[in-house]
Predict the structure.
Amino acid sequence: MNWISNYVRPKINSLFSKRDTPDNLWTKCPECGTMLFHRELADNQNVCTNCDHHMHITPRERFSALFDGGIFVEVAVPEPIEDPLKFRDQKKYPDRMKSAQKNTGEKEAMLVAEGEISRTPVVCAAQDFSFMGGSMGMYVGNAFIAGVERAIALKRPFIMFSAAGGARMQEGILSLMQMPRTTVAIEMLKEAGLPYIVVLTHPTTGGVTASYAMLGDVQISEPNALICFAGPRVIEQTIREKLPEGFQRAEYLLDHGMLDRVTHRNKLKEELATILRMLGGLPPVVAGDLPPPSAEEAPKALEKPEGDAK
């Protein structure tokens, strides 16, 4: 046995050989170019630790950080008709849906859940921009209405996190019909005397902006979020003029009275808790006074009312 060839050389080669590194360990910030370690980025709620750029965050990740103890219960959503127009462009609509479901691990572009924020019971809905651009189709309309009905049944405030490229073209007029449907649902909330709070995230555009995203009792946005109906490039090409710096960004809209607050993602839970308790006539949140519920307390905290069929 040649121990140099069979043992020493392989050992040396293993020390100096290139080690494969998984591609998902590092994320490059699209704003400043800083390479961010995935755990550090996740701990900071997908906000760049160098320039504070707010990156995309999924509804589940958002709810895990928002609700006490990361505990929430999903609200069931009625299933719409599958591919009602038999639409096809480069792909069939059902094929696009299957691809989006595989890539995101989600059923559709909106997630609805109930839980507690600083011990304040709420119902929340959030759009997932990674699912076909968060586009508003019949399922999104059904999900919004299901969330509103659940909030009314439980007598809880309703919070909406918007992120969308607009209506879903594969559903045509049926997608556009979600605009009046969701507007009527908001009126139901108002008649029930329940707060409706909107948190606009990057980007919120098109028919979503023209409906439920701009009808909140309180309008909050994450920093530098693009909020518009038609994008700035389209407007510039139409009017043939240069638009103001930061046009249609959250800070610009705040200065011009279309938003109430622009809040950093890491401070959003505290901000929402303060607003919810103020609107509900509850005492203010005191630091350390409202710890997350334990596993034993969680089922009681989210207990459904008697006779509720949902």
Remarks:
- The two ends are 73 Å apart (CA to CA).
- The CA atoms of residues 259 and 290 lie 29 Å apart.
